[in-house]
Amino acid sequence: xxxxxxxxxxxxxxxxxxLSGRCYGEVELDIxxxxxxxxxxxxxxxxxxxxxxxxxxxxxxxxCGWTPIQGVSxxxxxxxxxxxxxxxxxxxxxxxSCAKKLEFRPHLFELKHLxxxxxxxxxxxxxxxxxxxxxxxWNKLAGSLESLExxxxxxxxxxxxxxxxxxxNLQSLVLLENGLTGxxxxxxxxxxxxxxxxxxxxxxNGQIPDMFNGLSELLIFDLSRNLLSGTLPLSLGRLTSxxxxxxxHNYLEGNLxxxxxxxxxxxxxxxxxNRFSGGLTLSFQELxxxxxxxxxxxxxxxxxRTLKWENLQNLVILDLxxxxxxxxxxxxxxxxxxLRFLGLSDNNLTGNxxxxxxxxxxxxxxxxSGNNLTGELxxxxxxxxxxxxxxxxxxxxxxxxxxxxxxxxxxxxxxKPCHHEIKLLESNARTYKLLNGYVNKTSHTIASLGFLSxxxxxxxxxxxQEILIMCVVLNFYIGL
Length: 480
Ligand SMILES: *[C@@H]1O[C@H](CO)[C@@H](O)[C@H](O)[C@H]1NC(C)=O
Ligand SMILES: *[C@@H]1O[C@H](CO)[C@@H](O)[C@H](O)[C@H]1NC(C)=O
Ligand SMILES: *[C@@H]1O[C@H](CO)[C@@H](O)[C@H](O)[C@H]1NC(C)=O
Ligand SMILES: *[C@@H]1O[C@H](CO)[C@@H](O)[C@H](O)[C@H]1NC(C)=O
Ligand SMILES: *[C@@H]1O[C@H](CO)[C@@H](O)[C@H](O)[C@H]1NC(C)=O
Ligand SMILES: *[C@@H]1O[C@H](CO)[C@@H](O)[C@H](O)[C@H]1NC(C)=O
Fold this sequence. Notes:
This protein is an alpha/beta fold. The protein is about 20% helix and about 20% strand. It contains 7 helices and 24 strands. The radius of gyration is 34 Å and the shape is elongated. It starts with a helix and ends with a helix. It binds 2-acetamido-2-deoxy-beta-D-glucopyranose (6 copies). One 2-acetamido-2-deoxy-beta-D-glucopyranose binds near residues 55, 57 and 58. One 2-acetamido-2-deoxy-beta-D-glucopyranose binds next to β21. One of its GO terms (cellular component) is plasma membrane. This is Piriformospora indica-insensitive protein 2. It is found in: Cell membrane. Keywords: Cell membrane, Leucine-rich repeat, Membrane, Repeat, Signal.
């Protein structure tokens, strides 16, 4: 690619030279007109990131025209071209890629029509040449900048400058997978046009600032995978347009606030892996748009039955694993017709598992392992067949499955067969043999196992067995 570019540039230069030869000097070059300051600012800005050996004016004499730079876009304002988009980092093969030792040059802030600035895998040095985001001059971009993104820059460290708060036109601020530290600057709350705020996978700590009063246009808010602690700020409830809220993988604690009820358009709520407590808030049952609700691995506690789950008709994924729930699994779960994943593992749930759950048309994963469920699993053979390993009910010591409906391949892992069924089959096996000359494979196996376990006091067992069989035979004839 580069070869072709250089080649075509050589041709272009030869062409110009031949023209100037003919016309004795002055030529009107068809170059996109730019202010010299704008053009120089562009070259210098890029050079700061990609290294001094990169000579912009040499390689790209017409950056908004004949010799476009990968990752740079321009727009036309009042007869001149200005840079509007600058993407640094290896997005395409021929993208600008960053040097080991690099710097933010002040020229960046001279690009007065810059709308979108992004850095991807640019600041990578882990030790020697770590970089911080400069604090000054962002005000110069306040009128134009709409999107600012630092993504996967492991060598980008230090704090987020509070001066980001002047970027009044910002609609998207993405600081994802960097090495940023310190508090989330409350000045972000000034960015009232924000639609997307992603601060995920950094090392932000401290509390989430109570800064959301003005952010009524925010659609996506992601603070996941940081070191945030403390309680939820009440102003979260002002994010009335919000579609996605992800606060997972932090150290957040305290109650799930009732202000969640204001997030009527929320489709994703992910609070997993935190330290929330205080029970499920009733306001959850007003999140009518919710499609994914993931609360797993918290200390939330409380009874599942306190919520009217049937209100959440759009739920597709519900994960309440390991949050200290008590009580019985409400039958209203079986009204969530779109539900595909239901995770209730590792709680303290009691009572029976309603076979109605198997009527959920979309369900393809159901985990209830690690609870204290009791009684019989009354699901159909088809249900176990359909779910396979995506049905998990192990570690419920008082739960059993009905052996009659089960083919051996569909026995739910880690669940024991129901006791009275065994007795019945132990005795029936012989009876069937006696009466019909027919032995069911499954029941025969169980009967043999029963015999083996009783072998040490074989006489006694055989005696008992004969009595049982007599009873069954008698019953049979009385039944007739
Ligand atoms: C870049 O190239 C131009 C033209 O070839 C040259 O005049 C200039 O000195 C070079 N600049 C640097 C910093 O090497
Ligand atoms: C919620 O979504 C609906 C439908 O998409 C939209 O009309 C409404 O304005 C949204 N509400 C808010 C507060 O953004
Ligand atoms: C479940 O209840 C038992 C007894 O009440 C308690 O010891 C245990 O810690 C509880 N487990 C969970 C996960 O809450
Ligand atoms: C399962 O079936 C048995 C007998 O058919 C019944 O006694 C029991 O209540 C049922 N359990 C559930 C959870 O429906
Ligand atoms: C499970 O429930 C039974 C009663 O159904 C109770 O006796 C037992 O202590 C419970 N086990 C745990 C670990 O909570
Ligand atoms: C015997 O097993 C088959 C499947 O292997 C099953 O269809 C049948 O219902 C079983 N009969 C009894 C009496 O358990």
